[in-house]
Amino acid sequence: MTRFTIVLLTVLLSTVSAFAKPPNVLFIAVDDLRAEIGCYGAKHVKSPNIDRLASQGTLFNRAYCQQAVCNPSRASMLTGLRPNMLGVYDLPTHFRNKHPHVVTLPQLFKQNGYHAQCIGKIFHNWRQDKYKGDAKSWSVPSVDHYNSHGNDKAQVEGELPPDLSDIPKCEIRDVPDDAYFDGRIAEQAVAALNQLKDQQFFLAVGFWKPHAHFNAPKKYWDMYNREDILPAKNPNPPKDVPEIALHDSREILRDFKKRPGGKPTASDALALKHGYYAAISYMDAQVGKVLNELDRLQLRKNTIVVLWSDHGFHLGEHSLWAKTSNFEWDARVPVIISTPNHKPGQRTDSIIELLDIYPTLADLCGLKTVHAVQGKSLRRILENPESKIKDWAMTQHTRPAYPPAGKDPEAMGYSIRTARYRYTEWRNFKSGKIEARELYDHDIDSAETVNLANDSSQKEVIRQLHAKLDLTVHNNW
What we know:
This protein starts with a helix and ends with a helix. It is an alpha/beta fold. The protein has helices spanning about 5-20, 50-55, 70-80, 85, 95-100, 105-110, 180-195, 220, 250-255, 265-295, 330, 355-365, 380-385, 460-475; strands at about 25-30, 60-65, 115-120, 200-210, 305-310, 315, 320, 330-340, 345-355, 395-400, 410-415, 420-430, 435-440.
């Protein structure tokens, strides 16, 4: 045997051994987190643990959800199918009512010998399945997966410290982290890692924050000075925006009906932003506890870590609060993927969608998808952040923003985001007739303050973008 042959065999054997054991997956979901954290350039938001994860993996700077509300977004991401294919557009509808035999992402791993476990909010709160949490997807019953955000009230031994806030949707109590859902979820995730350390696992950990109510423990509020928090830079609706693009912000504003004018005052708005940032830092600390335990157990060398948010959030921009629009603040989401086999500290501007995560994890773990997923594997981008897998992403949303359970919406807004533009068509849901259009040029208007759809100089741009949007819509009915 020649020296060259020996060296070649050594290289081949070392490569095989590196992949001999399929990697574990730590799948971290967060709720209502917009792309405003430290690693996304927002140094005023304290998110050191997620920032650390970004330094260890690949940060996707242009990741987009499929619909900016919990159930449709999570159902799409976890099945690899667009909302139109699933027929899920509202909060109550369980995707299995429409597609009973679809194989979810964790279910695929379960079917391939992984221990699949859910701690916290991964799927949405389906009323008819609240105690099971889609049992087909998991090896053991889910925990802390079903509840209401309004029920996340501080639980402590002894006397409950007073609430130092008088602002609706905000609560400030000097309590420990485990007084609220996310602190207890982190504790259970740490325990699960210790139980699973010698198994092949897909562990899904779903944090409930920074979704309102904004009730992080006081120490996280204390990380910010209210005087340093700035109001929204673009508090008014975009110029020439069609009314259908806006909504009533009910998730936040329904608690302000008794306030002057029925909406947050300027001071209230700053308090809400303060609470949102505090909730981010609280959630980030819980993420850190889980990541630290993964490292302590020396599991990182064979574990893929994925962190994603189901959609973005408005904090007064465009006159809006919360989600349910197609604007950039709602559509764009944080996505970070850290693997043992790809270069750490990468950033990419390649456009991706949440539904790409399903085929990516299947690809990285050598699993064959059971049904034809509509996303694309991100492996090529992980290997070369300059590469791209698609030229645009699609986000859509209904009108009304919260349609009646199981009923078709009146209209659907389809929005595609290219490297330069966001183009949106609002279509009658039954007839498909275009009722309104929006066009925003991000090269000159990243805040989406002026709708150019009626500008005659943009006719050719609109024609091209309409063709791309139409292709995506009709390929995914």
